[in-house]
Write a structure and sequence with these properties.
The chain has 2 domains: about 200 residues, 2-enoyl-CoA Hydratase, Chain A, domain 1; about 45 residues, Lyase 2-enoyl-coa Hydratase, Chain  A, domain 2. The protein is about 45% helix and about 15% strand. It is built from 12 helices and 10 strands. Strands 1-2-3-5-7-10 form a 6-stranded mixed beta sheet, with helices on both faces. It has a 4-stranded mixed beta sheet with strand order 4-6-8-9. Strand 1 and strand 2 form a beta hairpin. The radius of gyration is 19 Å and the shape is globular. The protein binds octanoyl-coenzyme A. The site of octanoyl-coenzyme A (CO8) has 23 residues, from helix 2 and strand 6. This is Probable enoyl-CoA hydratase, mitochondrial.
Length: about 260
């Protein structure tokens, strides 16, 4: 699929080394459905493979990052449709297969699957008035794309339990205060700008080191502290086999800016 043939997303490269993906299904507040997710996966994989790209930003509109999974698409599904067809399994490509960092810039509504998609990203930025939450309980279901796991890991059990059981939504400011968001911004423009700036910073480093950073931080979510630290040390040792380790350390000694080989 060529870039211009996307129907539900827009892709661009607004800054050096940075790939931007904007969800673009305005009539449904970027409600997520399979055709959109397949385009998103394609764009993420294309940037992931592109050697000129070092980091990505995922955003929606000022009104909605994504107002959830498409309720109208889900309404008629029965158990066999959901289980038999592995409904929403394709959503897991972002957290499971993408190796370069992805920053979400969350403005407006990020509800249900929209909140889950934002939390699948490696860094979450939002604007103060963003409206996040897991309101699935109100529809007679539960979070289905990782929300119960990622929200709980990020903000703790009691608060996550309260939010998921009541369906209460929360602001971008709350997301920041609780540690779910790494940064909060006054306006959507500043939020996207901040995300692009951070992505540009990351894209300026050795791709090898960046990839290793993402891998070891993610391991901390699955491993105990001892195994995690041992894992980190092995990856750290491995980086002494890279050209960029020599380049980075020699540049420091010479007080020069490192010119990475990304090897
Ligand atoms: N799905 C489908 N259409 C949607 C969705 C959605 N999630 N959200 C909004 N829309 C549509 C509306 O139906 C409306 O369409 P139309 O103009 O044809 O009537 C259009 O977008 C604009 O929406 P509103 O008129 O409602 O806009 P408001 O500004 O008045 O309200 C809200 C905005 C508060 C965001 C409101 O639209 C809303 O409550 N939306 C639903 C939010 C929600 O409950 N999301 C969670 C969905 S469940 C989920 O995501 C589960 C994920 C995991 C799946 C696992 C399944 C196994």
């Amino acid at each position: 699929v060529a870039e211009k043939s996307y129907e539900y997303i827009k892709v661009s490269t607004p800054r050096p080394g940075v790939g931007l993906i904007e969800l673009h299904r305005p009539k449904a507040l970027n409600a997520l459905f399979t055709p959109l997710i397949l385009e998103l996966n394609h764009a993420l994989k294309t940037f992931d493979k592109d050697s000129t790209i070092g980091a990505m930003v995922l955003t929606g509109s000022h009104k909605a990052f994504a107002a959830g999974a498409d309720i109208k698409e889900m309404a008629t599904k029965d158990f066999a449709d959901a289980f038999g067809d592995d409904f929403i399994e394709s959503w897991s490509e972002l957290p499971n297969t993408i190796k370069k960092p992805v920053i979400s810039a969350v403005n407006g509504h990020a509800l249900g699957g929209g909140c889950e998609l934002a939390m699948m990203c490696d860094i979450l930025y939002c604007s103060e008035k963003a409206n996040l939450g897991q309101p699935e309980i109100k529809l007679g279901v539960i979070p289905g794309a990782g929300g119960s796991q990622r929200l709980t890991k990020a903000i703790g059990k009691s608060k996550a339990m309260e939010l998921i059981l009541t369906g209460r939504t929360f602001s971008g400011k709350e997301a920041y205060d609780w540690g779910l968001a790494a940064k909060v911004f006054a306006t959507p423009e500043e939020c996207l700008d901040g995300a692009l700036a951070t992505a540009e910073t990351i894209a300026g480093y050795s791709r090898i080191a960046v990839k290793a950073c993402k891998e070891v931080v993610n391991k901390s979510q699955d491993l105990g502290i001892r195994e995690g630290v041992e894992y980190e040390r092995r990856v750290f040792h491995g980086l002494f086999g890279s050209e960029d380790q020599k380049i980075g350390m020699n540049a420091f000694a010479k007080k020069e800016k490192a010119q990475w080989n990304h090897r």
